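Structure ticket #2291
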Amino acid sequence: MKMDYTVAPCYEGITVRDYLRSKIGLSRRILIRLKQTGGGICVNGTQKTVRCILRAGDVLSLALEDCAEDENPLAAPSGVPVDILYEDGELIAVDKPSGMVTHTSHGHHDDSLQNAVAGIFAKRGQPFVFRAINRLDRDTSGVVLIAKSQLTAYKMSLEMQSGGIHKVYRAVLAGRIEPPDGKIERYIRRRQESIIERIACAEGIPSEYALTEYKTLASRDEMSVVDARPITGRTHQLRVHFAYAGHPIIGDDLYGSADCRIKRQALHARSLTFTPPSGGEMTVTSPIPADIRSLCAGFADDEL
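Resolution: structure written out below.
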């Protein structure tokens, strides 16, 4: 994997090491790997050390061989089809269906999104390590962004942590939510007797602050279709917050109740807005799945 950076005038006179730490935010671990890789660091096409002094207009090139870390092993390819929503040399975004876990895990060694994406690259004859930038619950559908290298994954994870990646979910809630547009601000912590379930609480350790913004697109007495933005990224945040507000996501049998009209929670990762390493903000959008459209029969297409 190779990435190029053009040095701006404000970085004139600093070392490659300082540029990589302050501008790009590389960890010490990745910096060591770059130093150990032949041709890992080049300036204007010539191999350099981290002590090289940079000048405005220099092109700094980083090359890092991909590898499978212990915490993210290679997965067996599967033939399960998933739609590619976006792809460039550094990233790929796919449309995860409901009922599919994101990563391989106990009981899901060959039917995860990780296996499905491995299958895409196996057909191309390309080795691939799965590095998801965002994750979705098994029964939540929608956009999942995946990095093609460790370097890209690190950079995009930093962008996620700094709030530079914006997620919008389409959710169908029980009842008519009031006010129609607003925010839910409530701490979240794990329920003591449960490994999975979370609860909303006032504040304090071991809870974490959580903020959700939402906007109603359409509503009637028994349901509301909303766009929801989790400003923070807590486990089950949208499911917990809407249940706390008295309007659980329809079909959510953990925080609300099962519904015969849909076999899962009516929650869909509609869009992801981010800036790829190559530059230029972009938004990737996933179409609304058929089961959510069926649940909302009677609403106009532009309300979904």
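Closing remark: The first strand starts at residue 2 and ends at 6.
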